Amino acid sequence: LPYSGPRYKSVERLPGALRLTFSGTAGELLLRQGDKGFAVAGNDQKFHWAEARIDGDSVIVSSPEVPQPVAARYAWQANPPTLLYDSAGLPAMPFRTDDWRLSTEPAAHKD
Q: pLDDT (tens digit, 0 to 9) for every residue of the chain, 111 residues total?
């Protein structure tokens, strides 16, 4: 039996979208209908809810509010909906592709 669902592996920039690839997938990726699972941001670091679609062994995410996305997040909020699964029925783990400072992190101190 698989021990976990899909795990984020890498991101590739596409014109107007991002391609997310995963490891640890038992069978194919499955996307349940719903909203507010994926979000994307441009260089301004402002996230907007994104549309997602399966493309083989990857997920393509985009949003009309972000013409040139550079980062994506999945299930990155309190009590997130789980939309992405593998064919074993295991959900993908929450992830983010960016390393931007989170709003709950303390600001860096200057000495």
A: 777 889 999 999 999 999 999 998 888 999 988 778 999 999 999 999 999 999 988 999 999 999 999 999 999 988 888 899 999 899 999 999 999 988 776 666 565
CA-based nearest residue to 37, from 100, 87, 81, 79: 81
Core vs surface per residue 58-80: b (16+ CB within 10 A) or e: bbbbbbeebeebbbbbbbeeeee
Long-range contacts of 62-68 (CB under 8 A, 24+ apart): 62/16, 62/17, 62/18, 63/39, 66/40, 66/41, 66/42, 67/16, 67/42, 68/16, 68/42, 68/43
pTM, to two decimals: 0.87
Instruction: Report residue 103 as tokens.
Output: 């709003």
Give the separation between CA 64 and CA 106, rounded to whole angstroms. 32
